[in-house]
Amino acid sequence: MIANGIGWSTFGILYGALAAAVILIYLLRMARRGRAVSSTLIWQKVMGSRRSLWKELISLLLQLTLLLLLCLALVDPRPPADSFQRRWVVLIFDASESMAAHGDGASRLRQAERDAWRTISTLRESDRAMIVSAAAEIDALTPFTGNQEELKQALTKLKPSGTRPKIAEAIDYALASFAYAGVGANDTKHLYVLTDKPETVVAPEVENVEMGVIGVGETLPNLALTSFDVRKTLNLTEAHDALLRVTNFAAGPVSAELAIFTPESTIAINRVDLGPGETHNQVVGLPFNTFGKVTALLRKVQYADQTKDALASDNAAFAFVPPTRKSKVVLVTTKNLFLYNALALNPEIDMVSIRPEEYRHGLSAAADVVIFDRFTPPQEPVCSAMYFNPAPGGPFAVLSTKKKPAMTGWAEGHPLLRHVVMDTLQIDEAHILKPAKDDVVLMGHFDGALMLLRPRADTFLLGVGFDLAKTDLPLQSAFPIFIHNVVHIFSRKPEGEIDTGHRIGDRVELTVTEGRERVVLVDPLENKIPVTVRGGRALYRPEMPGFYTYADAGALRVFAASLLDDKESDLTVTQAGALPAFDNEDGRGGIERIAPWLILAALLLAALDMVLFLNGKLS
User: Rounded distance, CA 442 to CA 464, Å?
Assistant: First the structure.
């Protein structure tokens, strides 16, 4: 037997000391001294009740045996592991979002939970089991334990969270757990995976490990939003388009309403009719200057056979469009109301107007675009710049000055001239500019160019060879569009596509200021979740669709999470199965812990001593 509590040497010292004390007490009690009394009449009954020597010895043996049992209980002796044929069972649960699907009854995950409990309840006391949840992360809900109440509590904690479960990694984790769990030579190892997509699980062949992949649930109908992206429109404005895809995973036709809305207004409502396996793709233009929370929702879903949609989490998708940063423009002009009004009336532009004598080179470092009107500073600005009627000696070489110059053509379709028509442009006088090696001629002349674009490392210079006061361009509808195109393109930063949403289960990096140790995140159900900052980074995996908010640097930050996964929304089950029920009688089960029985035996001996001796009932 192996001591699982105090050691055997400690047991010997403890029991020896207690036994010696009990024997000493008995010897002192039996050594009665005589006393002279006036009469023995009142003492005769007491003297007559004195127990015989053999009764005293039996009582002493009972007390010593009682102490022996209690000390052995402190040792908690257990048989060696190899004397039992234990079962070591690992149950891996697919905890991806598709396991939340349900028809008329419980969800697939709850069905798997009930099946697992039926199997666990057939385990012997000496057997061990472990519960593992496999979703975007692997979570061992229990260690190997024989406590069935602990296993039952772990089963109730299972919940779907994310997509693309890491079942292969969970199997590797379980196999490694066997190696560190102290599995005996006669023990058996069992590993079972419970999933609604058993065809995607490849169970490795491992010696001495019984493995099984158990299919859960049945095929259910589902209409799902499988794609929802918000992107800037292609015309280089600050408007956005919503790109959506709806897929019917049911075996029959289905109809529904597809609504797109913000907290302030409904943007669009369209009817969707799909046959089995069909998809619906749609692009919805969002109103200009739409930003913040945008939601797409499938509602009023109706199947031809009147069945119910089995998965609710893929009927909605969410995106957060960050507010557009205004372009910072410095206008350097004496007095040009055409330029001033074209810039001031544009809601995307934050403009500052100064006179030429007020301009300093340092102003260009804080601006996105500087527009020089009939003024050429001696030094090129740091940011992008636009020159109207540039003077000789500036960045653009002036070949000559022409009266009513003839335009040989213009770069129709260039981003700077998109939606701009220059065919009827009239110019009274202009400088003819000399193109450099990498310059782009936007408006040509026989001797050179009337408009030149010069790319630099991260910025641009645009030279317009004429004075706006000597042309009819400000009077044309193309003028504010031309100014908008220039400012928009010149102030664009190469930041790529807007990240308007995440998939549930994917890792999201929260924006945190330096020095913070924790971020409190509020989920779609308004639960507060503390997120620890490690190494200056705060990472979190959203577990449910919706909007998440947190505060940082005095600002409220938001990100969106959605399901948007074809594999999770496809609720087809190719094969179903059931966990095995173990036989309680096979193998060498036995009693593993004897300490409780030792304590019970000690209590019975104490009761026997009290009944038989203290009450004088023996004889």
Answer: 9
